[in-house]
Amino acid sequence: MIGTVAIGGGQLVDGTGADPIANALVLIENGRITYAGKASGASIPTGAKLVEADGASVMPGMFDVHVHISLSAPSSLLQEVTARSVGEAAFEVANNLADTVSGGVTTIRTVSDLAHLDIDAMKSIEKRKIRGPRVYPCGHGLTTTGGHGDIMPCWLSQSHGDISEVVDGPDEIRKGIRRQAKAGAKWIKLFQTGGVVDPHGRLDAEEFLPEEFQAAVDAATLLGLPICVHAHNKPAIMRCIKAGCRSVEHGMHFDEECAEAAKEHGTWLVPTLTVMDRILVHGAQAGIPDFMIENVQERTNKHHEYVKHAYDIGANIACGTDAGSLLTPHGSGGREIVQFVKCGLTPLQAIEVGTRNTAKLLKSEDTGSVEVGKLGDVVVVEGDILTDIRRLEVPGNMRNVMIGGQRVAAGGNPVLN
Q1: pTM over 0.90
Q2: Which residues in 117-191 belong to E strands, given as ranges?
Q3: Are residues 66 and 148 in the same domain?
Q4: Domain check: are 201 and 333 in the same one?
Q5: What residue ranges in 68-172 does DSSP mark as E strands?
Q6: E strand or H helix at 25, and its extent?
Q7: Radius of gyration of the chain from its Cα atoms, rounded to whole angstroms
Q8: Which CATH number fits the domain that encloses residue 55?
Q9: Are residues 198 and 121 in the same domain?
Q10: CA pair distance 283, 279, nearest whole angstrom
Q11: Are residues 382 and 314 part of one domain?
C-alpha cells in the first residue's frame, strides 16, 4: 500500500493545455490522484508523505512511444546488434529502463526489439521484479527480406535473431503477427519504407507489396492489435492511413494531404524529431556516414513544417523519440517536447502533446494528465518549464519521478526503495 502522497508548493502544469496553477497541491492516495489544484483548496491529510515542489514545476509523467529498449543509442546499428549476446542485451535493457524513468518518462511503447526483451520487460515490471515505466510492447517488428528492419547479415540472424522478423508473402506475414501476439505483444510494428540510415534512395521506396500489407492489417485487426508503421514517403503514409493503421512513425513526407487524410481517419503521426536532431547535431563527430546526415538535412525543415501544419489543422500528433536508436538516449521524452516547440508549438501545447495526447494514442485513459481520478504518474521538474522548456531535456532536473504515486527516480537517477 502506497498510502497518501502530497506534492506541494510548485507550479502545476497538468498536461491538459490549461493555464498553470501557482502554489499548487497534488494529492495521490493509493496510487491515484484525488486532488490537483490550488494549495488553498484542500488540506493535506494527516500522515501523508510530503514531496517538496517549491521552485519547481509539477507535470504528468512524459511518454515516448517510439522506443527500442534493447538498443543503447549506438553510432552503428549493425555493430550494436552483432556485438552482444542476448544475455548481455537483457542486462542493458534493465539499465535502459532505469534511464527511461530517470528522464521523467513514465510510459513507453516499444517498436521492435531483440528476442522479445521488451515483452519480458513489461512482464517483469508488472510483477515488480524490476523498476521501470509502463510498457506497451510490439515484440519483433515485421520487415521484408533486405528491408529496413533486416539489419543483421543472414549468417548471424539465423543463429542470433534480430530486432525484427523477416517475413515475405501474406502467409508468412500472418504467421509473424500471430507469433508476436502469442508472445504478448500489445501492438504490431511494420517497416514499410527505408529510413534515413539506408542508402540509394530506399527512403523513397515501399517494401511490403500491397497484398502483403493488407494481409498484415487483416491479421492484426482480427487479433485486436493496433498497428504502427515505419513510413517516410507519401505513398506509404497514405497507404497506412487508408488501411486504418493507428500510427505513422517518422513520416518525413507527411505533407498537407497526408495531414488532412490522417485527421479524417483518426491516424496519429509520431514524427521522432529527436533522433533526426541527434543525427544532425552529433552525427559527424560520432562517425555517422555522410549520406545519413544528408538524408536528414534534406528533409528536416519540411518535416518540422509538416508537423506544425498537422497540429494546426487538428491531426493527431504523439511523442516518440526513437530512443535506443542512433545517438538517442533513453528517457528522451523531454527532448521531443523541446523539438515540438522548435516546430512552432507553445510550451503548453508541446507538453500536452507529450503527455495527454500521447496517452490517447495508447488509449490509456488513466494516464497522461494530472487530474482527479488519474494514476499518479507525476514528475517534479526543477524550475519553470514554461519559461525554459529545455529543462525537460536534462534528467538531472527531474527532482522526483513517480509512477502510481511511488517514487522511481530522483535527480536523474533511479530510486530503488
Answers
A1: yes
A2: 134-136, 141-143, 164-166, 188-191
A3: yes
A4: yes
A5: 105-110, 134-136, 141-143, 164-166
A6: strand 24-29
A7: 21
A8: 2.30.40.10
A9: yes
A10: 4
A11: no
